Amino acid sequence: MYQLSKKNNHTKTREFKKIFITGITGSVATYLLEFLEKKNFKVYGSYRDEKKVKFLKIKSKKRIFKLDLNNFSKVKKIINKVKPDLIFHLASNADVKASFDHPREIILNNNNSTLNLLETIRISKINPIILLSSTSEVYGNSHSGFLNENAPLSPNNPYAVSKTFQDILAQNYIKIYKLQIIITRMFTYLNARRANLFASSWARQILDIEDGKIKYLKHGNLESSRSIMSISDAVNAYWLAAKKGKIGSIYNIGDGRNIKLSKFLNILKSMSKKKINTKLDKKLLRKTDIKKQLPNSNKFKKDTGWKVVGSLEKKLKIFFDEIKKTNSK
Fold this sequence. Notes:
This protein is of the alpha/beta class.
């Protein structure tokens, strides 16, 4: 089990021996894995897609397990075999656009996988800390001003509904069964390893225009606004939540500065030496969208000392350079 140590005579921090990441081949999970292995942690994990394993940079593939989290008996077998003292629950189908077309598939997958994991811990003899990855999508589009953790939940797409279920289910397991869960509601962050997000899609299209493969950059709604972090901000936040976050707490995690997507796209376009022509693609418009969300992350900053690092322009350059490296392979 994890241990508490003291630093500076007053700040309590946790020490972990075995860390388990669900969905370890997922894009965010791969960044987290690299972050943890640089710190020499023994990291375990589960995956479902065999094709992604060959790209996974992990010190020992003996510590990862093929596992569909919808299979309750197998979840119990593997978790009780590893006996982790920290679990990052990142496994979910996070494709918002696809959730409009396949709501049942995505909702059942996300709901059952989380229920099976929490129920496994409830009936097991271990009591790890669980970092449950929720999302700002649970707040929907019904709020103005800065959102704190007490803002009403109002999901406006099927994916967000599934994350709201996970979020509320975790709260129940905290209150009723005393599970050691910390819930993070993460706002938008840059992710060069996931191609179907707006930022990575635009960056790749810019490179395709530079290479003469396409003539126009296709986009969806540019009138909405987002609070955008770097992937390093997000991964560091997950780690600090696990190390210093209060058990049973819910944390909003975001930059706190919104930018309109039209302006964001212009910054990205300015990084190219070629003129980038754009075109609205109605197929990329969501059936329901989020116009604006302003995160209040004061609670998280106070409890963990987390802060965002660098300007948006600097983060975008790092992100764009990573996209370029990926495209050149």
